[in-house]
């Protein structure tokens, strides 16, 4: 089944936040839509204030991240509301921390 077609929904009223596997306490995810066959998905990822991740991450897919609100820090840089990251497969990123909390909107997909 492909990703679900949605026309202007409020995912916070139709979906549940959950703690994603492999993330520290203080991180929760709200999946907007996903395709189980291709593993393509969009999500909101929320970090409570003071949350820190451990280690560097990589993915086998492309990842596009938009900071909806808050701050995210990595490698001595602070990233804030309105900033984006476009990461190709296997690009190392993190660890991250946030002082005030952070919510991102992310798209994960595969490209040939």
Please tag this protein with its features.
single chain; 112 residues; mainly beta; six-stranded antiparallel sheet; 1 helix; 6 strands
List the uncertain runs: none
What's the helix count?
A: 1
> What fraction of residues sit in β-strands?
35-45%
User: How many strands appear in the DSSP assignment?
Assistant: 6
Class of secondary structure makeup: mainly beta
The coarse silhouette is globular
Give the terminus-to-terminus CA distance.
20 Å
Element pattern in H and E? HEEEEEE
Mean pLDDT reading: 94
Largest sheet: 6 strands, antiparallel
Rounded Rg:
14 Å
Q: How much helix is in the residues? A: under 10%
Plain-language structure description:
The protein is mostly beta strands. Helices cover 4% and strands 41% of the residues. The protein has one helix at 11-14, and strands at 27-35, 40-47, 62-74, 77-80, 84-87, 102-109. Strands 1, 2, 3, 4, 5 and 6 form a six-stranded antiparallel β-sheet that branches. The protein is globular and about 40 Å long. 6% of the residues are buried.
Condensed summary:
With 112 residues, this protein is mainly beta. It has one helix at 11-14, and strands at residues 27-35, 40-47, 62-74, 77-80, 84-87, 102-109. Helix content is 4%, strand content 41%.
